[in-house]
Write a structure and sequence with these properties.
Blueprint lengths: L2 E3 L2 H5 L4 H8 L9 E5 L5 E4 L2 E4 L7 H11 L7 E3 L6 E6 L5 E7 L3 E3 L6 H4 L5 E4 L6 H15 L4 E5 L19 E4 L6 H12 L3 E7 L2 H12 L3 E6 L4 H6 L10 E5 L2 H7 L4 E5 L7 E7 L2 E5 L2 H9 L7 E5 L5 E5 L18 H4 L17 H13 L4 E2 L5 E2 L6 E6 L3 H11 L3 E3 L8 E5 H4 L3 H9 L4 E4 L4 H11 L22 H21 L3 E2 L5 H13 L3 E5 L6 E5 L2
Parallel strand pairs: 9-13, 9-16, 10-11, 10-12, 12-13, 22-23, 22-24, 24-25
Antiparallel strand pairs: 1-8, 2-3, 2-7, 3-4, 5-6, 6-7, 14-15, 16-17, 17-18, 18-19, 20-21, 26-28, 27-28
Helix pairs in contact: 6-7, 16-18, 17-18
Length: 567
């Protein structure tokens, strides 16, 4: 269970007396976030989800000066604190340097807040915390430092730039346990203190709050390469924000443009210049704190960044904590498109319409005005590429980007159905000379030595599948186009499996999809479906195979039905 301590009385003691009285009697004082006092305005108290005025009288210059006198010195970052507390008082100054506003932030030590990721903390890997201001990053950082120092008996050094983690004064707050704290004279010197901590004090763990400059990101990489575990926070809500931030991109491995050869670009089905991660990330794990008790966990930052640069969406863990303190772990699967049958005049459909499997737009060799601008264009293309359309609403694909496929013993109807529904840039060809690859049925290809020799002589890759079914063909095409990632479950487009789009087929497929995605995959439990006709059960079997799961039909007609088993 969680418990917290806030020393709220110490913070209230610096405020004007009417404000103190109002807060002390307020029913929500235990969840108070901050008190804002601006010259000439009414004082305001902010609580989760709401704010209210504390007085009808505006704040005067004397009110502000009395508070400043009780607090003491403000540092170069315009922050001050109360000794041996976690409260933070931040000043707003006018152009002359006079203080005209104060933000009095309540600091709380919350014990048990890292129950959501305690198993990750114990691994010894570096962890990066992301989230909007006020979501609890510093609180979590403080608790992580205490757990590592007290429970795991590690040598922990905290780089406390603004004295937010361990409080103001020379004696650190008890909330950090046995961890040691190094203060920073000026914010711009944080990167130097980070290196000094490693060189002088032999820490096993370094804790850093608010990595915000390129020098600090470089210092973090230097520390990580020395084998020291890092736990830190950075500006940004999601990993996508760091990818777009050239200052902090090094924390996740750095992003660089790479020029591919003609053959490699054709094999990938992409443009010749693409974005790739330059190096291993400084932090192996990233945690996006969306809400105070709802965190998204990327257990492999390198995999997440690579997936995002390919224009796809990752499938991270989502960890939540209920009222009893139990941690619930789930995965957010992308929304599956549920057909009714799309209208004939619809534009892009299938997985491309939902942001999946979109080839990057070509640059056509046009030089940009600067390397930085070119890089930004590539980055925008990777993260949010949008296809071009002709005047009829059809997607335009450059002829050079099309992937020419030579099928052998494969059902052409099923092959064309997959290509059409998924909007893949694949052209079926009967001319082996212009083929980029051969897709063949394994049992038939073994006896066709001539085709093997011709493909080998012309260096055409051959991809074999066990059976000519929709899931096998779909998986093969995704792999040929470098769109396959076995670690991410594919989202099923039901139109692939429905033969005539009848209501009965769509209903049966939707039943099977929900059973797989909501019970079999996340909970690991077998599921029995409703009785269906043999024809409908067959397409249900194909859909289950698409998810790499097994299924059996059992029972007697007309009550024969499907049972789906976990992997």
């Amino acid at each position: 269970m969680q418990r917290s301590t806030d020393d709220l009385t110490r913070l209230l003691s610096i405020l004007p007396e009417p404000i103190q009285t109002h807060i002390e009697q307020h029913p929500q004082r235990d969840v108070l976030i901050e008190i804002v006092m601006d010259l000439g305005r009414r004082p305001e108290a902010r609580f989760p989800g709401q704010a209210e005025y504390l007085s009808d009288d505006p704040i005067t210059q004397q009110d502000l000066q009395d508070c400043v006198d009780r607090v003491g010195h403000f540092g170069g970052d315009n922050r001050a604190g109360i000794e041996q507390t976690l409260h933070r008082i931040s000043a707003i100054r006018n152009r002359s340097g006079d203080i005209i506003g104060l933000t009095c932030r309540v600091g709380r030590a919350v014990f048990g807040t890292i129950g959501l990721i305690r198993d990750l903390v114990e691994r010894g890997q570096s962890i990066l915390m992301l989230g909007r201001p006020g979501v609890g990053k510093t609180t979590a950082l403080r608790e992580i430092a205490r757990v590592l120092a007290d429970d795991l008996q590690k040598r922990v050094v905290i780089i406390d730039t603004s004295n937010e983690i361990a409080g103001d004064g020379d004696i650190p707050h008890p909330a950090i346990g046995r961890a040691r704290r190094m203060q920073v004279a000026r914010p711009e010197l944080q990167h130097q203190v980070m290196i000094e901590a490693v060189e002088n004090h032999m820490p096993e763990v370094v804790v850093i709050d608010e990595i915000g400059t390129e020098l600090e990101a470089l210092a973090a990489r230097t520390i990580a390469e020395r084998g020291v575990q890092l736990v830190g926070t950075a500006h940004g809500n999601r990993i996508e924000n760091l990818i777009k931030n050239p200052t902090l991109a090094d924390l996740i491995g750095g992003i660089g443009s790479v020029t591919l050869g003609d053959d490699e670009a054709r094999r990938r089905g992409t443009q010749k210049t693409v974005l790739e991660r330059k190096a291993p990330p400084t932090f192996e794990i990233a945690v996006e704190m969306l809400e105070r008790y709802r965190w998204v966990v990327h257990e492999s930052v390198s995999d997440t960044v690579d997936i995002l640069l390919r224009g796809r969406q990752p499938n991270p863990q989502v960890r939540t904590m209920n009222e009893s303190g139990k941690v619930l772990i789930s995965h957010e699967l992308p929304d599956a498109p549920i057909a009714p049958k799309p209208p004939k005049d619809a534009g892009v459909r299938g997985w491309r319409a939902s942001g999946q499997m979109k080839p990057l737009p070509r640059t056509n060799g046009v030089a940009t005005s600067s390397p930085q601008k070119h890089f930004e264009q590539l980055l925008d293309a990777s993260l949010s590429s949008s296809p071009q359309f002709d005047r009829f609403g059809n997607e335009m694909v450059d002829e050079e980007e099309q992937f020419y496929l030579y099928p052998y013993a494969i059902s052409r109807g099923q092959l064309e159905e997959v290509i059409g529904v998924l909007e893949l840039p694949v052209v079926i060809t009967k001319d082996l000379d212009e083929a980029n690859a051969v897709l063949a049925l394994r049992s038939h290809f073994r006896n066709h030595s001539k085709l093997r020799h011709v493909a080998k002589a012309r260096q055409i890759p051959i991809h074999l599948i066990k059976s000519s079914t929709i899931p096998q063909i779909t998986r093969a095409l995704r792999r040929l186009l470098q769109m396959d990632d076995p670690g991410v479950p594919d989202v099923a487009d039901l139109r692939l499996f429905s033969h005539n789009a009848s209501d009965d087929e769509i209903e049966a497929l939707e039943e099977a999809r929900l059973a797989v995605e909501q019970i079999v995959l996340p909970k690991g439990q077998p599921v029995e479906l409703l009785p269906r006709s043999p024809k409908v059960r067959k397409i249900q079997h194909e859909l289950v195979e698409h998810y790499r799961l097994k299924s059996d039909s059992f029972g007697d007609e007309p009550n024969r039905r499907l049972r789906i088993y976990p992997a």
